[in-house]
Design brief:
This protein is an alpha+beta fold. It contains twelve helices and twelve strands.
């Protein structure tokens, strides 16, 4: 019987420090189950998994285990929109209401996809209190967003669109592509790359899903660590409306896995996320045109975040590395963190793609588990 610290997978000898850091996460940093994958110039150099796929510690984490990676999905949702921009099917600076007429309500007639992708649209929350069931009814949430007045002048400031980002980007993609963002991601990204990533999880795959475990004490410490005041109504609505959107008490349900929630219910393994970022680290093709990726990686928002109460930095769809939350030492690194500590990023200067997923939430903002893995990786690279 394993004690949960046995590791599966492979690791290039040059990167044994990453393997050791991963093992230490299981032994000393409260890890339950997890996987980490690193590609260097497209070649896998770390592909490890270990620990437990359930809170009762009865199911070992396996090679094909997938887990909810929360906001790591925002980077992939943004990528879907950018792919359409690359093909000329979506103009980032055209008003969204040109394809979504109802969206013009409430003074939003000039809001663009670029503003949504950079968290500058002023639509970080829905003011009308929605029912718990609305979370799983796409049309109910998008109709509420179409009616919503911006919380600030669009383009004048930025604030993390915690849950609205996925619905907004998803509806823009649906209207431009003629299909839902879940099927678009599967057909245009997951299948060509053989990447195990998707919004929601089909019933046939649920036997290999890791149970996600929240630690209330960790969540309380994370909330206490915010630096600057925020509008309490905006913040409460951004995180808690519709109820259940954070995943607390919902992430392990069939309803959550049946739904398409691009901001929150990406189900993936580390290998799949790394494969996506491996393409982006190499410049973007065939997924996305180089010039569109260059736009996406140009700083669009930086500094005081009206929702997070901390500094944040965004391009289009991606978080950009920042001193308070670095994606390694590379100045050009980009990707997206997920609640509890999951992460996918690319460092194009060094040809690195990195992904980490786990099933026990940590502090998230500055998680010692992903930090240990990143530090070990760059130590091995001699940076």
């Amino acid at each position: 019987m394993t004690d949960g610290t046995d590791l599966g997978g492979s690791c290039d000898r040059r990167f044994l420090a990453v393997q050791e850091a991963f093992r230490e996460n299981l032994l000393d940093r409260g890890e339950l189950g997890a996987a980490v994958c690193v590609l260097l110039d497209g070649r896998p150099v770390v592909d490890l998994w270990g620990g437990w796929a359930d809170a009762a510690r009865t199911r070992p984490w396996e090679r094909d285990t997938v887990v909810n990676a929360f906001s790591v999905g925002k980077g992939l949702a943004g990528l879907c929109a950018l792919m359409l921009a690359s093909r000329g099917q979506l103009a980032l600076d055209d008003p969204i209401c040109a394809r979504w007429p109802a969206f013009a309500a409430g003074g939003k007639e000039s809001v663009t996809a670029r503003q949504v992708l950079s968290h500058r649209a002023g639509l970080a929350a829905i003011g009308e209190q929605l029912s718990p069931e609305a979370l799983y009814r796409w049309e109910a949430v998008t109709a509420a967003l179409a009616a919503q007045e911006p919380w600030w002048e669009p383009g004048a400031a930025h604030g993390y669109h915690v849950h609205t980002f996925g619905f907004l980007v998803g509806e823009v993609v649906r209207r431009a592509a003629g299909e839902g963002i879940g099927s678009f991601l599967r057909r245009e990204v997951a299948e060509p790359l053989e990447a195990d990533v998707g919004f929601g999880l089909p019933p046939r795959a649920r036997g290999r899903r890791a149970e996600y475990v929240f630690d209330p004490a960790v969540i309380a410490r994370r909330e206490a660590g915010r630096r600057t005041p925020v509008d309490p109504t905006l913040r409460e609505r951004a995180y808690m409306n519709p109820p259940g959107a954070t995943g607390l008490e919902t992430v392990n349900t069939d309803a959550w896995q049946d739904a398409v929630l691009p901001s929150a219910n990406l189900h993936a393994d580390a290998r799949g996320i790394a494969r996506v970022y491996g393409v982006l680290a190499a410049g973007g093709p065939p997924l996305i045109a180089r010039e569109v990726l260059a736009q996406a990686l140009t700083e669009a928002s930086c500094g005081a975040d009206l929702v997070l109460g901390r500094p944040s930095r965004f391009g289009l769809g991606f978080q950009l590395t920042q001193p308070e939350r670095p994606l390694g030492p590379g100045a050009a690194s980009f990707g997206h963190f997920g609640a509890g500590g999951s992460l996918g990023f690319a460092d194009p200067e060094r040809g690195v793609a990195f992904a980490y997923v786990m099933n026990r939430g940590g502090p998230g903002w500055q998680d010692p588990r992903n930090r240990a893995l990143i530090d070990a990786l760059y130590d091995a690279l001699g940076v």
